[in-house]
C-alpha cells in the first residue's frame, strides 16, 4: 500500500495488479456547472450503480451518458461510490465531472478488466491518504477471486480520506457491489465486509456505499451490516426525500419500493438529509438504478 507521500493519480490501477503494465490515464477536463447552493461544511455523498456501458438499444451508454453528465454536474457530490462501470465508462465520467475530480479503482478482474467499484472525489474537498481493494471470497487478497458460487466476481474498494473542508478530519470510505445471483455469496460477503470494518481504526468515521442487491430491512445481509456498527443513512436522516425502489430497470418508478442501494455510516455521523434521486431527461434515466445521496457531518 502506498504511503501518503507517494499517492499519485490512478496509482491503484498500477499497484492492484503487479503483473499489469501501467495504463495511460491522463485526464480530459470538461466545463464544470455551477455547484448547488449548500452548506459548505457538510459532506455530500452519492452511491450510484451506473449500469455497465452497452451499445445495445434502448438505454445504450451513448444515450445515457449525457443524462448521467447532467445529473452529476448538477449534484456535484464530494465523493461518489459507483458500481458496474467499465473502464472506458469510468474514464467518461471522469471527463464529465471535470478537472476538479479524481478517482480510485481497479477492475474486479484486475487492471482495466471487468467492472469497477470506482470512488470519485472532489479534490478541492478531499485528499486520499491510503486505499486498498479486497475481493469478496475466501481469498480476499487474490485479485479476481470468486469462491462462494456467486454469479460474478465481487470486490470492495476503500479509501482513507482527509476532509479538507473539516479541518483535515480523516474518515474511511468503502464502496462495494454484492452478488445478484446467490444469497450465500451475499451473506458471506457481508460477513467479510463486517470483519474488515472491524479491523479499521474505530476512532475514524466510516461511510459505506454500495448496491447490496437485497432490500433494506428485508434480508440478513442488512442485519449483518448494521451489526457491524453501522447505521442506515436513510433511517437516520433528519429529512428525507420521496422513497422509491432504487432499481427500476427503466420501468415506471415504484414508490416506497425496495431500497437495494444504501449509504451506511457510523453512529457518530450526523445525517442531515437523504435522497433517492429520480433525475431523468426526456424520459431517459441515466441508469437502471436511482442514485442515493446523503448530506453528512462526520462528527
Give me the secondary-structure topology.
Elements: H1 11-15, E1 43-49, H2 61-75, E2 79-83, H3 87-97, E3 101-104, E4 119-122, E5 126-135, E6 155-163, E7 169-177, H4 183-198, E8 206-211, H5 220-227, E9 231-232, H6 233-236, E10 239-240, E11 261-265, E12 270-276, E13 292-297
Parallel strand pairs: 1-2, 7-8, 10-12
Antiparallel strand pairs: 1-13, 2-4, 3-4, 5-6, 6-7, 8-11, 9-11, 12-13
Helix pairs in contact: 2-3, 4-5
Summarize the structure.
With about 300 residues, the chain is an alpha+beta fold. It has six helices and 13 strands.
What does this structure look like?
- This protein is of the alpha+beta class.
- The protein has one domain (39-297): Endonuclease/exonuclease/phosphatase (Deoxyribonuclease I, Chain A).
- Helix content is 20%, strand content 25%.
- It has six helices and 13 strands.
- The protein has a seven-stranded mixed β-sheet.
- Helix 2 packs parallel to helix 3 (87-97) and helix 4 (183-198) runs parallel beside helix 5.
- It is globular, with a radius of gyration of 18 Å.
Amino acid at each position: 500500500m502506498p504511503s501518503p507521500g507517494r499517492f499519485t493519480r490512478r496509482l491503484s490501477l498500477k499497484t492492484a495488479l503487479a503483473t499489469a503494465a501501467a495504463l495511460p490515464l491522463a485526464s480530459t477536463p470538461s466545463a464544470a456547472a455551477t455547484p448547488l447552493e449548500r452548506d459548505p461544511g457538510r459532506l455530500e455523498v452519492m452511491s450510484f450503480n451506473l449500469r455497465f456501458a452497452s451499445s445495445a438499444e434502448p438505454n445504450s451508454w451513448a444515450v445515457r451518458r449525457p443524462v448521467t453528465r447532467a445529473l452529476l454536474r448538477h449534484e456535484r457530490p464530494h465523493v461518489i461510490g459507483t458500481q458496474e462501470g467499465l473502464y472506458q465508462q469510468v474514464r467518461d465520467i471522469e471527463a464529465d465531472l471535470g478537472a476538479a475530480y479524481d478517482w480510485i479503482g481497479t477492475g474486479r478482474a484486475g487492471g482495466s478488466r471487468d467492472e469497477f467499484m470506482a470512488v470519485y472525489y472532489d479534490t478541492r474537498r478531499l485528499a486520499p491518504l491510503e486505499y486498498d481493494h479486497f475481493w469478496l471470497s475466501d481469498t480476499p487478497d487474490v485479485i479476481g477471486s470468486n469462491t462462494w458460487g456467486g454469479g460474478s466476481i465481487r470486490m470492495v474498494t476503500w479509501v482513507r480520506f482527509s476532509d479538507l473542508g473539516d479541518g483535515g478530519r480523516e474518515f474511511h470510505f468503502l464502496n462495494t457491489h454484492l452478488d445478484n445471483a446467490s444469497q450465500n455469496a451475499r451473506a458471506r460477503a457481508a460477513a467479510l465486509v463486517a470483519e474488515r470494518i472491524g479491523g479499521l481504526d474505530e476512532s475514524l468515521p466510516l461511510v459505506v456505499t454500495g448496491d447490496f442487491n437485497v432490500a433494506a430491512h428485508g434480508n440478513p445481509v442488512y442485519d449483518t451490516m448494521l451489526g457491524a456498527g453501522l447505521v442506515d443513512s436513510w433511517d437516520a436522516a433528519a429529512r428525507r426525500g420521496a422513497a422509491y425502489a432504487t432499481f427500476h430497470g427503466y420501468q415506471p418508478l415504484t414508490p416506497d419500493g425496495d431500497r437495494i442501494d444504501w449509504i451506511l455510516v457510523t453512529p457518530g455521523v450526523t445525517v442531515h438529509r437523504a435522497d433517492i434521486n429520480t433525475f431523468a431527461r426526456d424520459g431517459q434515466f441515466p441508469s437502471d438504478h436511482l442514485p442515493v445521496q446523503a448530506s453528512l457531518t462526520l462528527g
